[in-house]
Amino acid sequence: MNLVDAFIPIWALTAVGYLARRRGLLGEGAAMVLGRYVFHLAMPAALFLTLSVTPLGSFDLRGLGVFGVSTAVVVGVGWFGAARLFGRKAGERPVWGMAAGYVNSANLGIPIAQQVLHSVSFLVEVVLVQVLVVTPVILTALDRHTDAAGRIRLRRLAGLPFRNPVILGSAFGVVWSAGHLPVPHVVSGTFGLLGASAVPVALIALGASLHSEDARPATAAEIGVIAGLKLVAQPVVALLVGLLFHLTHAQLFAVVVCAGLPTAQNTFIFAQEYGVGEALANRAVIVSTTFSLGTLAVVAALLGPR
């Protein structure tokens, strides 16, 4: 499999969603319904199964730390720059930051890691960091947006994992992994079918959403800045910090490749669920995914195995 093969299913399913909506095969509210299905059912099932069998020890802590720094820097720049540069409101800024720094570590990251890195071990650690650290921060900020006064109430914050199926599914997966608990066959079979639909349905929803605009459509300048942060700034930050931490060449290569992955479609799903920045999110996913084919090829050429 070459690098292009990893991108074709994403482009194809997004195009199918767009065409189905345009031709009326999917109704006006289809993107919202499909997005809610992914957020409330399919994604939690997929995260639980993935994390329940993921060992929580033996991490590459230095490499993971470098990736975490690159994510924090770029998400932070996007989050606060959204207001300074483009006047985005408070509820939209987390989506902006997520679009700039939350990588597609699943459906695109896995084939890219297999093709370029010949291993998915570090990518699994990236998944854990994003799910257990970055996602709760983003969802907490978005949850705050639903409060009329914009407050963070401790009682509401403490109950967020029980109200948010993504966090809840992840938490149960970590508990299962930490306790070395077996997942009953009937549960793994059912959740496996449900979880397997998360990525294709999310991409269909993404494509369908391209047929409509939200209240504040994204400008070309915004998408250009987001794509630059995601595909150039984040891997460059990872490279510089990795050199500072004296990572081995193999570690540095893995970190920079993972940092250079495009925006995750979860960004669109979260934006749609909370009703903020949907157009920004869907265009960021499409544009960053398209151009990442070139930027990842450059990373592979410059830092590949010697």
UniProtKB/TrEMBL annotation:
It is found in: Cell membrane. Signal peptide: none annotated. The keyword NAD does not apply. It is a multi-pass membrane protein. One of its GO terms (biological process) is transmembrane transport. The chain crosses the membrane at residues 6-21, 33-51, 63-83, 120-142, 162-179, 191-211, 223-245, 251-271, 283-303. Keywords: Cell membrane, Membrane, Transmembrane, Transmembrane helix, Transport. Its main location: membrane. GO terms for cellular component: plasma membrane. It comes from the Bacteria. Belongs to the auxin efflux carrier (TC 2.A.69) family. This is AEC family transporter.
